Amino acid sequence: MSVIETIRQCHPKLIKIRRDIHAHPELAFAEHRTADLVARHLESLGIEAHRGVGRTGVVGVLRSGRSLRAVGLRADMDALPIQERNDFAHHSRHQGCMHACGHDGHTTMLLGAAEVLAAHPDFDGTVYFVFQPAEEGEGGADAMVDDGLFDRFPMESIFGMHNWPGQPAGQFAVHAGPVMASADRFDIEILGQGAHAAMPNLGTDSIVAGAALVQAIQSIVSRTLDPLDAAVVSVTQFHAGEAYNVIPDRAQLCGTVRAFSEAVQDQVEAALSRLCAGIAASHGVRVNIEYRRGYPPTINTATEAALCAEVAAALPGCSVLADARPSMGAEDFAFFLRHKPGCYVWIGNGPGEGGCTLHNPHYDFNDQIIPAGVNYWIELVRRLLPKA
């Protein structure tokens, strides 16, 4: 039986697996049921399964031939703290938790690739199937690295794939260089002197100082950075006061910074600190800032990106989006790419209903793209680990 026929026959079973995972979502580092499902499925295929890597991660090991070469394929498993608004049969059974980003589909496509490669081990080397926990903000990739992922499973390179709503089903977007941005956070505390709202001259207004700071922050990208360097600096929270007739002594601003290079991250962090110091001096308040680095930029290596584009373009019924623009969203696959060369691609999920996109309570993964994702993984392995 050919690979394509095997994928076709596996498709109904994979849809069932995907919908089962969707119906039982689990948050970061709590993917116990999902991890057990993954490990048991791998073991049923005769694939060696290692549990508890990076707390709740699973790594499958499939060897063929005699080569010492090895490659890693990664899928994320966690869901989001979102109340699902869908009413189809496989809707989330867990209140306040749903697969709104398609990790159920990513896990399923990699399981499908494992099943087909186990049945057709037409490669020479080792494939590591990396099922990662906690992509959604908790850095599960970094946890797996800290747990010795690359020492215990010595792969030469690592590859990831994410569905992309709005992109035609089965079309791949492959970026040479930045594909996703960094995700930093800042918390700013403004300390003034409270007063009666009718007598503001007797206090030092933390709200006015905070408003001035929000406005000043808007100048960082437009007046501090090189116009050719992309970045986003967004204030997303402003907390102050509890009464109509009281000027509060404290205000708090929170926000996020997105960029495609660590040099730009450094510039933005320095600019924020300067602005805070300036607002403190000009308004007579104290300003404290805490800047926290989060996910680094996800930057594909050129050689691996070129190979992935070639593989995707050769798949039956698939195409590659030329000159795809990167996203200011973030992805912790970046932590893997700090240690190994690799490439993170997008696979089109088709048009979202009503414009529905990722992290939306009406989102659902498109089961019809499962075969394309499975075939991509298989052909990538064959190109990376060719038989002599």
Automatic annotation (TrEMBL):
<dbReference type="InterPro" id="IPR011650">
    <property type="entry name" value="Peptidase_M20_dimer"/>
</dbReference>
<dbReference type="InterPro" id="IPR017439">
    <property type="entry name" value="Amidohydrolase"/>
</dbReference>
<dbReference type="InterPro" id="IPR036264">
    <property type="entry name" value="Bact_exopeptidase_dim_dom"/>
</dbReference>
<dbReference type="Pfam" id="PF07687">
    <property type="entry name" value="M20_dimer"/>
</dbReference>
<dbReference type="InterPro" id="IPR002933">
    <property type="entry name" value="Peptidase_M20"/>
</dbReference>
<keyword id="KW-0378">Hydrolase</keyword>
<protein>
    <submittedName>
        <fullName>Amidohydrolase</fullName>
    </submittedName>
</protein>
<feature type="domain" description="Peptidase M20 dimerisation">
    <location>
        <begin position="185"/>
        <end position="276"/>
    </location>
</feature>
<dbReference type="Pfam" id="PF01546">
    <property type="entry name" value="Peptidase_M20"/>
</dbReference>
